[in-house]
Amino acid sequence: MSHLIHRHLGQRPPVAVGASGVYIDDNQGRRYLDASGGAAVSSLGHGHPDVLAAMHAQIERAAYAHSGFFTTEAAEQLAALLAAEAPGDLDHVYLTSGGSEAIEAALKLARQYYVERGEAQRGIFIARRQSYHGNTLGALALGGNAQRRRHFAPLLIDVARVAPCYAWREQAPGQSEADYTAGLLAELEACIIAAGPRRVIGFCAEPVVGATGGAIPPTAGYFKGVRALCDKHDILFIADEVMCGMGRTGTLHALEQDGVVADLVALGKGLGGGYQPIGALLARAPLVATLREGSGAFQHGHTYGSHPVAAAAALAVQRVLRRDALVAQAARRGAQLRALLDEAFGAHPHVGDIRGRGLLLGLELVRERAGKAPFAPALQLHARIKRQAMARGLMVYPMGGTVDGERGDHILLAPPFIVSQAELGEIVGRLGEALDAAL
Ligand code: PLP
Fold first, then answer.
1. Which of 323, 357, 385 is the last residue of a domain?
2. pLDDT digits (tens, 9 = 90+) for 278-329
3. 11 lies in some domain
4. 421 within 8 A of 335, measured Cβ to Cβ
């Protein structure tokens, strides 16, 4: 018996004993092709020597130094690198131990910004029904995933919710994309007005929806419209790029492709590529200036914030990403994987949609294509696909029945950027076998 509280209390997962490149090995001699990068975490692949060396060097220099007493070169250099390449004046960086913590920091910095501006009445966040922002209480409250919130409702702040940008399901027949997008923006504006613009702190969204829907990109102009509404009503736009950021969609920041700069950007996953637990919050200069000129401190902090080994690992990951031009490679490999998926599943009777950006791609499964009806949640199809894929040495990230309980099953593919073309073929072949066995 295991003393660990596993995600599924009735199941004990395989024991990972090795990992290199795009593969993870278990203690039974089985090898798994990591087609999901864990949960869209691994960008460089596993066991990269440059990252291991950087971590080793930092551990020898100073494994830990509390950020209340010291800063470190690793944390300073990582922040400088992120700030130098961030769009607009997103040039302040707060380092955390993961994505949820980055979102919590965003909620608190945004709230404190308005308090310091003398607007303490502001307390409302707006988010979308189809979204995941993390599992800590603030981030969980923000997320639209009703199933994940269910047990914890009394502990969660109220969040106003609007429709996701989910054209494949929600754009009406005969409606143009522009009209569909305009409708979403009108709903967001109505929500801001109903809440009272002077009571709203900000709107939070994932530029490409990840874990609640499988790589759903926005429609053209959607985020430009969001930015314009946030400016018009003087509320903040918080972009959750924890999953879709740091090159995963083929550009360093996903929102670059929408021509938009958010006020706060949460990062995680690909920032450290899985080598260490690390996330970050990027903040626009005027927000931090308001705190600096006001109370002089961000009323927040964690024991492991700006952890030097985590910062050294992320710095090394980010340097290799740039040296080896891996963001451009993510765009190229993403296009190749997309073409292979279209070829293999474009006419599959139970694959309703294939979508995404860069190496963040998703398949939405349907009982029948014409009406887009999902499989019954009780079938747990996504869990069966995961089991069948693992039995074939393939890791994919499955989701099911998670948005208001009714949206069906999805598969997310997010392999490391170093994946080869031959390995992409392997992924699609094994996925096809897993689907056939599970359906
Ligand atoms: N935001 C998004 C978009 C995510 O996908 C996730 C994790 O899946 C999080 C936030 C939370 O990050 P973490 O699990 O590192 O706390």
1. 323
2. 999 999 999 999 999 999 999 999 999 999 999 999 999 999 999 999 999 9
3. no
4. no
Nearest CA-CA partner of 417 in 245, 269, 248, 276: 248
Q: Specify the residue with its C-alpha closest to ligand 1, atom 11.
A: 134
Of 100, 244, 276, the residue with max ligand 1 atoms within 8 A of its CB, to mutate for a pocket test, comes to: 100
Closest CA relative to residue 333, chosen from 395, 261, 423: 423
Q: Is the pLDDT of residue 405 over 50?
A: no
**Which residue is associated with the tokens 């985020």?**
223
Rounded Cα distance, 345 and 159, in Å: 38
Residue 322 burial class via C-beta count within 10 angstroms: exposed 0-12, middle 13-18, buried 19 and up: middle
Q: Is 133 in the pocket of ligand 1 (CB under 6 A)?
A: yes
Q: Which atom of ligand 1 is nearest to the CA of 39?
A: 8
Residue 9 domain flag = no
Asked whether residue 76 falls in the same domain as residue 186, the answer is yes
Q: Is residue 377 located within the same domain as residue 306? A: no
The CATH number assigned to the domain holding 20 equals 3.90.1150.10
Asked if residue 112 is part of any domain, the answer here is yes
Is ligand 1 within 6 A of the CB of residue 98?
A: yes
Pocket lining: 409 vs ligand 1, CB cutoff 6 Å: no
Mean pLDDT (whole number) for 80-96: 97
Alpha-carbon distance of 391 to 32, in angstroms, equals 9
pLDDT band at 338 (very low <50, low <70, confident <90, very high): very high
Q: Is the CB of 245 under 6 A from ligand 1?
A: no
Residues 150-205: tens digit of each pLDDT:
999 999 999 999 999 999 999 999 999 999 999 999 999 999 999 999 999 999 99
pLDDT of residue 378: 83
Nearest CA to ligand 1 atom 1: 133
The verdict on residue 2 lying in a domain is no
Ligand 1 centroid to Cα of residue 349, in Å, is 32
* Domain that residue 250 falls in: 51-323
User: Is-contact 212 402, C-beta < 8 A?
Assistant: yes
Dist. CA 211 → ligand 1 center (Å): 8
For the stretch 270-292, pLDDT in tens is 999 999 999 999 999 999 999 99
Shortest-distance Cα residue to atom 12 of ligand 1: 99
Q: For ligand 1, what atom is nearest to the CA of residue 136? A: 16
Question: What pLDDT was estimated at residue 331?
Answer: 98
> 422 and 287 share a domain?
no
Strand order of the β-sheet with 279-283 is 92-96, 279-283, 264-267, 236-240, 200-205, 124-128, 159-162
What pLDDT does 403 receive?
Answer: 53
ipTM of the complex: 0.99
